Amino acid sequence: MAWIITKYLLTAGMVVFISEVAKRSDRLGGFIAALPLMTLLTLVWLYVENQPEEKIANHAYYTFWYVIPTLPMFLLFPYLLPRLGFWITMGACVVITVICFGLFALLMKGFGINLL
Description:
By secondary structure, this protein is mostly helical.
């Protein structure tokens, strides 16, 4: 139980840290947020918990493919925010990301990469 609490605290601490940095500097906050810190933490957690190397490698592999369809959201969010407000923009970005992911998964299936 202590291990789970430690994981929660460290992982949540990263989110809080990034949001605090972003309050002070848009660029630095964005840069830190763009780093694959959560993925690296997840890979460490999997390794420390003695997961097989194949599982750890698969996590990194699928993370790569799952990041690609999220990228349009980062361009649309600043465009939509002043027009729709925060919550509607968040909802629209979630919907857009789900649609992009579905289309991307269909596209990649044609190349033999099964994401769903």
